[in-house]
Specification:
It is a single chain. The protein contains five helices and no strands. The chain is an all-alpha fold. It has a domain of 64 residues. Helix 1 runs antiparallel to helix 2. It is flat, with a radius of gyration of 17 Å. 2% of the residues are buried.
Length: 116
Amino acid sequence: MVYNIIKIVISAILLVLISEIAKRNTLFGSVLASIPLVSVLAMIWLYIDTQNTQQIILLSKGIFWLVLPSLVLFITLPIFLKYRLHFYAALISAIILTVIAYYLMLMVLEKFGIKL
């Protein structure tokens, strides 16, 4: 239980740190946010927990394929905001489109015999 709390605290600190940096310098905040910190942390925690590199390989491959549909969020959110959609409406709409993109990507990967 203590270990899980430590993982949560470290992960939360990184997210808060990035958002605070972005308030002061959006370029540096963007660079830090673009680093796949969540993925890297997930791999680190998974390795510490299991010592199973095969699981890391599978996780890494899954992340690779699912990065593409995740980009939909970063394309659509600024477009929605540019057209003056309220922030939360724009965010929810972008997330919905991203979920649809994930679903479509999984269908395409399945057609090519790629299982995640």
